[in-house]
């Protein structure tokens, strides 16, 4: 039997919670013995933050979508279920994040419509002959949200090269930008 990744839901006294991979793998549901942590053997459910973001994207059947900084792959999985024959490529510079995303997305990957790739956006490029994207987006990714201004120009150049001219880039709550309008 394949071992399943373990996710923990951490709850603070104020009721806020978030899902974190704890790095363990188990064969079946288990308890870790702490009352503030519950243990599941499945990928995390979609949070209202991610669901709202995905709901706001102008997704259409057949679209090609690029997610930058996908983390455990929650949004990428959800989008792959909403775009019919379209495809999602979800990248992250963290090998661990890509491993967790891949482990939690086996059915979606098997459709051939979702692919995870271990690469930083500063190094990302389309594969030979690969069609550019209709939509690219990033949530809480430092290279694009202003936390790492030294990486932003390079990241935006890579996104411009990967998007169709009429394609749209969504970064957090910023106004979307067309591929053709991204500054060189
Ligand atoms: C705060 S997490 C957000 C994960 C997910 N987007 C979400 O909103 O839940 C940021 C993710 O972006 C990834 N990341 C940060 N800088 C990146 C870069 N330059 N290129 C690709 N991924 C990056 C990190 O490894 C991490 O998985």
Defining key terms:
Rossmann fold, 6-stranded mixed beta sheet, 26% helix, 3-stranded antiparallel beta sheet, globular, binds S-adenosylmethionine, 2 domains, 9 strands, single chain, alpha/beta, 30% strand, 184 residues
- Taken together, the total number of domains comes to 2
Helix tally? Answer: 6
What is the 3D form? globular
Helical percentage: 25-40%
- Estimated structural class: alpha/beta
Mean pLDDT equals 87
Strand content: 25-35%
Instruction: Outline the low-pLDDT stretches.
Output: none
CATH topology of the largest domain: Rossmann fold
Write down the CATH class of the largest domain: Alpha Beta
Q: Sketch the major β-sheet.
A: 6 strands, mixed
Counted beta strands: 9
Overview of the molecule:
It is a single chain. The protein has 184 residues and is an alpha/beta fold. It has 2 domains: 4-40, no CATH class; 48-181, Vaccinia Virus protein VP39 (Rossmann fold), CATH 3.40.50. 26% of the residues lie in helices and 30% in strands. The strands form 2 sheets. Strands 6-5-4-7-8-9 form a 6-stranded mixed β-sheet. Strands 2-1-3 form a 3-stranded antiparallel β-sheet, with no helix packed on it. A hairpin with a 5-residue loop joins β1 and β2 (17-26). The termini are far apart. Bound molecules: S-adenosylmethionine.
Outline:
The protein has 184 residues and is of the alpha/beta class. It has six helices and nine strands, in the order βββαβαβααββααββ. S-adenosylmethionine is lined by residues 68-71, 91-94, 97, 120-122, 139-143, 151.
């Amino acid at each position: 039997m394949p071992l399943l990744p373990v996710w923990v839901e951490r709850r603070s006294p104020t009721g806020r919670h978030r899902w974190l991979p704890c790095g363990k793998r188990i064969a079946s549901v288990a308890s870790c013995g702490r009352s503030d942590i519950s243990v599941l053997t499945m990928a995390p459910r979609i949070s209202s933050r991610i669901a709202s973001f995905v709901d706001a994207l102008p997704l259409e059947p057949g679209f090609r979508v690029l997610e930058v900084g996908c983390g455990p792959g929650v949004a990428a999985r959800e989008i792959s279920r909403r775009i019919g024959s379209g495809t999602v490529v979800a990248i992250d510079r963290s090998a661990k994040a890509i491993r967790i995303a891949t482990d939690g997305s086996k059915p979606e990957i098997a459709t051939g419509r979702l692919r995870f790739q271990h690469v930083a956006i500063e190094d990302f490029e389309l594969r030979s002959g690969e069609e550019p994207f209709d939509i690219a987006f990033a949530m809480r990714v430092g290279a694009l949200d202003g936390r790492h201004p030294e990486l932003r120009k390079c990241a935006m150049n890579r996104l411009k090269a990967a998007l169709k001219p009429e394609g749209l880039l969504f970064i957090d709550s910023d106004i979307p930008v067309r591929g053709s309008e991204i500054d060189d």
